[in-house]
Structure formats: structure tokens, C-alpha cells
Amino acid sequence: MTGTGVDGTFSVWAPTAGTVSVVVDGVAWPMSADEGWWTATVEGAGPGSSYAYALDGADPLPDPRSRRQPDGVHAPSQVWAAPGVPDDGWTGRGLPGAVIYELHVGTFTPGGTFDSAVERLDHLVELGVTIVEVLPVNAFDGTRGWGYDGVLWFAVTENYGGPDAFRRFVDACHDRGLGVALDVVYNHLGPSGAYLDRFGPYFAGSNDWGSALNLDGPGSDTVRAYILENVTMWFVDFGVDALRLDAVHALRDTRATHLLEEMAVHVQGLEAALGRPLTLIAESDLNDPRLVTPREAGGYGLDAQWCDDIHHALHSTLTGETQGYYVDFGELETLGRVLREAYVHAGTWSTFRGRTHGRPVDLDRVPGWRFLAYLQDHDQVGNRAGGDRLSASLSPGRLACGAALVFCSPFTPMIWMGEEWGASTPWAFFVGFEDPELQDAVREGRRREFAEHGWGAEEVPDPTDLATFERSRLDWTEAEEGQHAWLLDVYRTLVALRRTERELADPRLDRVQVDVDAHARTLVVHRGALRLVVNLGGGEATVPVDGATEVVWAPFEVGLSEAAVVLPAESCAVVRTC
């Protein structure tokens, strides 16, 4: 990346500044302007040099494109030289047929670093995971956090080991055949250390989470280029295989070519140049299949999206919760529909929103692998008052049923870290801001938010308390014990079954059929000649299955005849039919 001091040349966009100087290792150097860009060449500067920019004589600020912040987001930047594209024979990992594992580096292991996370990668390989999705790793203020308060998008946080450690992590994943997806946030910046507006018209208002970027106003060409440059960096300099784009519905862009479409075209070019598949996955609340429709068919051309409707239907059915945004998801028939159609709200009424929402997926043309299905994720666990997982309230049988519905679906399955063994540890919201006023604002904001959903203040852990973070670390000692070991075996077997029984991974949505008996609380999901039979009721159930010939998988004692499968309470099985 040019202009970040590697060759002694520094450049920064500051179109409204009268003067700009770069302070390198404590010495100020004047910069010259050309159409809003300021440039200076400093003899002797290079990797390891400290630098910052002083605009109109004000205090120096870190580089908006800083590659390293060894002393935090308020301190000077440090010149860092990217090692370049690795020549390791890695040919990439595409999304069709993938199994994704989402993790937060800081709580995945006791060490909370990239290097300590490498020590657990073999567990993921044994589980059958093919892509590791990492929560945001860009620089944010404080010693801990989810990563969504990032303010310097090009710098890897030192909390996990910095940029060199992240590159080692990616290489270690590739050595084991694992692709790497990285969560990136382009819809807002965090509340502490966001100095972009001091340099130029980067911001255009705000959204629910913070300052929103200027994507369509004056100066937005450079802002959009800034984002695309960041996309390029992750794919080229760090070798990641996919980006998960956080909350794209919050990107305010009225241009004829939306930023997401421009990004998809940009990544296609990178894909051709690098010679390996590159993937863009959107998180979206829009229920709009145009996001994942190819550009040739009039869509934006993204590869896939997280599908919260699938999660909500599974969660509400398994737990019985119907409050808040779960209000339209409690019926068993709704779960049956989402397993066939991906969206529940598809141009239909949304009670929570008080309006119609979404549009239907073309079941004949859009493959199911474009939608990620999950029982849990960082949001759906961490945004509960206590950060409680499903394992805190569901029986092992129900957890297994939920996993079977995900892995026997036509969608791309995703696992939230620790879910595979029913981890007993919570995963709550936590921050490490040092500013007392900001701490108070976050603490009170979370309590106020949860009060609207019926949780009392005493039920909400203090997000600024170090203990809240420590309690959220996985306890790996429990993974091979008792019911945890049993559930882990269920997950391993389901992942393997999805590969050996190709019908279970068939993404053709128009071939999926679901039989629902709401009274008996049973479902039968048709996947070619295979049937996933699920009993969510409180007693034994005899479930009609025509032509059943063989039990392919069942972690429970089941009975089989040519016309039915007998399942104990809260259990499931996969059977073959003739």
C-alpha cells in the first residue's frame, strides 16, 4: 500500500486543511498538496517508524490508513510492511458445501490471541469445519471488546497480537485446509478514536451504532475508494478468503450503483488476479434476495447472506420464546416454511416492524448455500441480557434436534464457538473503554435497551467489568465430558453425514419438502431419498414416513417400520426411504 511510509513516502487525504505536516519519529515534516492529497518523502523512514499527521497546526493524529497502532488508537501510527501474497499453494475455499465456525479471538482460548487460537485449529478440522469466521480484528479503543467499535480499519488490534500474528493465524488455517472469513464493519465507526472527520468529509450523519460514512455526498468518491482499498488489503496482504459485511442495511447509499455492487465487481477482479475464490457475505435485515442475486440477473452480486429468519424460527420453536422480534416465529409451520424458502417475511406482514417486509426468494434459481443457517451466533447470544447460550435452557436432546435441522438443511451451516459441545459459559456484551463517561454511557445504554425487552437491570452484567469478559471465555476442559462429549459427537457426525450423504448438502430449494404435525410437534424434512425426522414433543411419537428402509443416523433409540419412525421425546433421526 503506497503512502503509508514503507518506502519513506507518506500521503493523506485532507481536502479542507490549510497545512499538513507528518511527524515522523518526533520530527515534523511539511507536506505538499495536490487535489486534496498531501504528500511528503522522509529520508530514513521505513518499517518501524512512528508517524502521525498534524492538520493546521493541531495535535497530530494517527493515519486513517494506519497499518499498525502499537500504543492504541489515539497514539501515533507505526509503519508496517505487509509480507505480500503468500506462495504456499493455497487455492482457496469456496462457499458451496462449506461448514463455517464463527469465533471471537479474545474469548476463544484462555490466551485470547491469534497464536493461542492456532492451538485449537485442529479441533475445528476434526469437527469438519471448512471456513473459520473471525469477529472484527481492526483496531478499537480499549483492551477488550467484540470488535464492532473499530476506528482504524487498516490496523489489526494489538490486543490479539497485531498484524503479523493475524497473518500467522491465516497461514496456519490454510496449512490445515481451513479458509478464513473476516467480519468487517463499514456501516459505522466506534465512539472513541474516530478521527476520520478531522481529515475530510468521511462522515454523513449517524445510525444506531455510531458515525455513518459518506457514500453518496460530496467527496464520497474518495470515501468509497477508502473502503475498497480496505477490502483489497484483507484479501491480498492477509490472504483471507471471505469477508462478512456487517449490517449492510445500515449503509446509506443513493447512488445508481450501490457500494455493495461496486464492491462485488471489485472483488471479482481481485479473484481473477489472485487465482482463488473470494467470497462476500452480507449481514442484512432487508430480506431482499437481490443482495445475493448475480449482477447478470439484476442483483448486487454478493455471494451469500446471514439469514436471521432461519435462526429466529429455530430459536423460537426450540425455546418457546415469542417476545420482541421472535413474535412471528413461534409456530412449527413457520419453521417448516423457512426450511423451504429461507425467508419468513417475504413481502408479508411483520408484526415486530408493524409493516410488510421483504420479498420472496426465487426457489427455482437461488441455491440454498447462499443463505447461512445457524442456531446461535455472536449477536443472538451476546445481545441477550446475560449472554446465555441455548445450552443454558435446552435439553441435550433439543440441542441435537436443532443441530440436525441446521445440518440437514439446504443452507450453509454455521456454528458459534462452543456450541458444538453445549458450552456452559455465557458470552455477554463487554467493552474495555477507559473513559469513565463512555463507560457510564455504555452501561446505562445496555440496561435501558434490555429494559425494553423485559429484563431488569440486575439481570444485565456490567459490560465494563473485566469479570464479564472473563466469564465469556470458553472452558475447553468440559468439551470431552458427559453430555458435552455426547453433543460434540452429534455435531461431528452430522458434519460428516452432510459430506457422505450428498443429498443433505443439496442446495436446490425447490426440492425441499417439509411435513409438519403441529399437534404432535413433529417434522419430517425430505432431502432426496433421506428424511430427517424430528420429535420436539414431550413424549414418544410415531411419525409417518412412507417407505422407510434404514436408519442412517440416530443418537437416540428409535424404532423403524416401512411406514413410520418411532422417536422418544425431544429426539431426531435420519432415515433412508426406498
How would you portray this structure in words?
By secondary structure, the protein is α/β, with parallel strands linked by helices. Helices cover 25% and strands 22% of the residues. It is built from 14 helices and 29 strands. Helix 8 packs antiparallel against helix 9. The longest helix is centred in the C-terminal third of the chain and has 19 residues. The termini are far apart. The mean pLDDT is 96.
Topology, element by element:
Blueprint: E1 9-13, E2 20-24, E3 27-30, E4 32-34, E5 37-41, E6 50-55, E7 77-78, E8 100-103, H1 105-108, H2 114-118, H3 121-127, E9 131-134, E10 138-140, E11 150-156, H4 162-175, E12 179-184, H5 196-199, E13 203-206, E14 211-213, H6 220-236, E15 242-245, H7 259-274, E16 279-283, E17 304-306, H8 308-319, H9 332-341, E18 348-350, E19 355-357, E20 371-374, H10 378-382, H11 396-407, E21 412-416, H12 436-451, H13 466-471, H14 482-500, E22 513-517, E23 522-527, E24 530-535, E25 541-544, E26 548-553, E27 559-560, E28 564-567, E29 571-577
Parallel strand pairs: 8-9, 8-21, 9-12, 12-15, 15-16, 16-17, 17-20, 20-21
Antiparallel strand pairs: 1-5, 2-3, 2-6, 4-5, 6-7, 10-11, 13-14, 18-19, 22-23, 23-24, 24-29, 25-28, 26-29, 27-28
Helix pairs in contact: 6-7, 8-9, 11-14
